[in-house]
Specification:
Number of helices: 13
Largest sheet: 10 strands, mixed
CATH architecture of the largest domain: 3-Layer(aba) Sandwich
Distance between the termini: 33 Å
Shape: globular
Strand order of the largest sheet: 2-1-3-12-11-4-5-10-8-9
CATH topology of the largest domain: Isopropylmalate Dehydrogenase
Radius of gyration: 21 Å
CATH class of the largest domain: Alpha Beta
Structural class: alpha/beta
Helix content: 40-55%
Number of domains: 2
Strand content: 15-25%
Order of helices and strands: EHEHHEHEHEEEHEHEHEHEEHHHH
Length: about 375
Amino acid sequence: MNLKIAVLSGDGIGPEVVLQAKKALYAIGVVFDHEFVFEDALIGAVAIEKTGKPLPEQTLNLCLNTDAVLFGTVGDLKQDGNSNTHLSPIQGLLKLRQALGLYANIRPIKPYKDLLDLSPIKRKIIEDTDFVIFREISGGSYFSEKKINEQGTLASDLCEYSDEEIIRITHLAFRTAQKRRKKVTLVDKASILETSRLWRKIVKEISENYPDVAVDFLYVDNAAMQIIINPKQFDVILTENLFGDILSDEASVITGAIGLLPSASLGNSSALFEPIHGSFPEAKRKNIANPIASILSAAMLLDHFGLQEESRRVYESVEKAIELNVVTADLNPYSKFGTNEVGDFITNYILSKDDLYFKSDNVYIGQSTIV
């Protein structure tokens, strides 16, 4: 398979972690005889500095004419406080989502057995947790009308959803549930919000087309609690933009580190893959950022294009790195391994998992793994 991939590394630690994802994809290409062509472009704060726009036309044109987008992070301490919201780095990502017609953000939540004790939640509660959050990302209060009066004392954000926006992601969530444990949970606030009542009405109607999938409903406040006290009850969580943004970040505590979680954003003809963590500008160029979320985003990219065996190879390589404690300091404060070293290990394991290139005794004492 030949794929052209737009690489938008963005700001902060983005370039460092995305580099490791590119290395992993290169290794997959070598082992499985695929060709991945990468083309880099600007977005976020670095784009504002160089072009005056968070999403330059050249970047958008590239993304519209590639098979997929491999995304890093956006955000900069100098730009994040910009009072001109049109020039904030996050606007680059929001505009890109709109332009590509991305409507479903997918975030898997599955802790690693070797890292269960990292989570602040008890092991017995989170062990065997495995669910995925489907967050609608094209509508809601993020993209609807916004107002503030001249005095800056009154503001509003309209939350608006159409039936079409709800229908397309609901079908996607149910089809995914059919391949998993056959359960969908809609998270809403139908007791108060008219948009939530529309969500619930449409989901009930669509559920009749999937008789093999159980469906239940939770108010968002209860869902936030249930994710912490009983996460194993969930299979596929479906929700709107704002609720999904909050709940998916909350769910990251189950894994113990936000640097482990990838995501995919899908449209009818476009797809973007990114880690869920922020730009962490304080760690920029220090070789301490965890690259695993970015590498697993590359695995989700492979899976999206039907390359399941290739995707499993990446997951297996990440699991081996975690098993052997080849991780960054956020997962092990005594680790001597940095972003590049973790990425190198995973890449080399993809290339030759039966011929490890490191001395295992050295792994545990944090010395160089290269033979």
